[in-house]
Design a protein that fits this description.
233 residues; mainly alpha; 3-stranded antiparallel β-sheet; two-stranded antiparallel ribbon; 9% strand; globular
Length: 233
């Protein structure tokens, strides 16, 4: 299964998951499940807020930073499972208790799996996404006053975005990736968060339009995202 994750990681930095067993001696790795309760989540939101404020040249509201931070985390931890399922039909070592994260001050946080040989069938992808994302949403909502609808929409947008990146890099799995991502979006956890429209390149199969906004437009000098409910139809 290490070869599966090595192949998945070639899609891009958001898809990379380390598998070297020697990483197990590094105490800075923490189980993914701990992220929902760890102080690192508050630190990540604060870090994102500082970076966004510096880029904008003006203070960014904490709830905007929390929303953007959650969307980035969702993209980081959900991209690899989608790609593994689409490319190889399995989910190797990507459960909340085997997948680990480590803090990085820039770029996507590194991920490492302690048990890459633990394999689940691709059909379990929607349930796995819910099992990973629901605690993160709950933790962010408890930390900062952000709408549940916004946060769920962020996860759905991250899934659709991972699908778009994957089919752009590996067009041979476009149909399979679209089917799997659609199944994730139809899971009760994400159902109703958006709609699938006719595909706009580089999308394949469908293009996602969410029914909420990640609040990115509230940062001075920015605008709406392509899948935002506020963007022109």
């Amino acid at each position: 299964m290490r070869t599966v994750l090595a192949d998945v990681g070639r899609t891009g930095p958001f898809f990379a998951v380390a598998t070297d067993p020697a990483e197990g001696v590094d105490p800075t790795w923490r189980p993914l499940g701990d992220l929902a309760t760890a102080p690192a989540l508050a630190a990540r939101v604060a870090h994102v807020r500082r970076v966004l404020s510096e880029q904008a040249g003006a203070p960014v509201a904490e709830r905007v930073a929390a929303s953007i931070a959650l969307q980035g985390l969702a993209a980081r931890v959900l991209s690899a499972p989608l790609a593994a399922a689409a490319l190889h039909g399995v989910l190797p070592g990507l459960d909340p208790d085997t997948l680990h994260w480590r803090v990085a001050m820039s770029g996507p946080w590194p991920l490492w799996t302690a048990d890459p040989e633990r394999v689940r069938p691709a059909a379990e992808l929607p349930a796995l996404v819910a099992r990973i994302a629901e605690p993160l949403i709950g933790a962010v909502a408890e930390l900062v006053a952000v709408s549940q609808k916004v946060l769920v929409g962020n996860v759905a947008s991250s899934v659709a975005g991972a699908k778009r990146v994957l089919v752009g890099a590996r067009p041979e799995v476009a149909t399979r990736a679209a089917e799997l991502a659609a199944a994730v979006l139809d899971h009760p956890f994400l159902a109703g968060s958006g709609e699938r429209r006719p595909p706009v390149p580089p999308d394949a199969g469908w293009t996602f339009r969410r029914r909420s906004c990640c609040l990115y437009y509230r940062i001075p000098g920015t605008g709406t995202c392509g899948d935002c409910v506020l963007a022109p139809s």
